[in-house]
Write a structure and sequence with these properties.
The chain is of the alpha+beta class and 179 residues long. The chain is built from five helices and twelve strands. The strands form three sheets. Strands 2, 3, 5, 6, 8, 9 and 10 form a seven-stranded mixed sheet that branches. Strands 1-12-11 form a three-stranded antiparallel sheet, with no helix packed on it.
């Protein structure tokens, strides 16, 4: 467990300035740009092959909306079986994918019981979720971090899903292609 906290604090200090992306932005302007309302039911019931994101703000933050839902290894009283739009900030330096407390509640993880896991430290337990149909272990954004309000799309998901990330071009764009 010590390795995880060292990993989280190293990442936390590496990426120390997310004040330019607020929850109100995720729910407002970013949702408008992406054409998908943050933390609402996703119109996609099957995995998408190509998902276009947006480049946000003066810091050129790559943000994408991915459908997320609980997996079968999670038992919850209020969890939804249908995918929910979750807007993620993509950070290639992040080895791990994180979701905010608000986003986890939106899919029913506030009362989660993960089969075979001890629930002593809720922040450090990886949660098996389906992100665009791919099973990935997601961690809660640490409540003490500067990115507690954000969902971070990390390299673990890129590796697990075999996705290809494109961020660049003369007309700056951000998109992810899945196999």
């Amino acid at each position: 467990m010590n390795n995880l906290s060292n990993s989280t604090s190293s990442f936390d200090s590496l990426c120390a300035d997310f004040e330019d992306v607020c929850v109100t932005d995720l729910k407002g302007q970013i949702s408008q740009i992406l054409g998908l309302q943050y933390l609402q039911a996703s119109p996609h019931s099957t995995p998408q092959k190509l998902i276009k994101g947006a480049v946000w703000g003066a810091s050129l933050r790559p943000i994408i909306s991915l459908p997320v839902q609980i997996s079968r290894s999670i038992v919850t009283m209020s969890g939804t079986k249908q995918p929910t739009n979750v807007h993620f900030l993509y950070i290639a330096a992040s080895p791990q994918t994180y979701m905010s407390e608000e986003a986890l509640r939106a899919i029913g993880v506030e009362d989660v019981v993960q089969i075979g896991e001890s629930m002593d430290d809720q922040e450090s337990i990886p949660l098996p979720l389906l992100v665009n149909g791919y099973r990935i272990l997601v961690r809660r954004s640490p409540s003490s971090s500067h990115f507690a309000h954000l969902n971070i799309f990390g390299e673990d998901f890129v590796h697990t899903s075999g996705a290809r990330v494109f961020f660049g071009g003369e007309q700056l764009q951000f998109e992810i292609a899945f196999p």
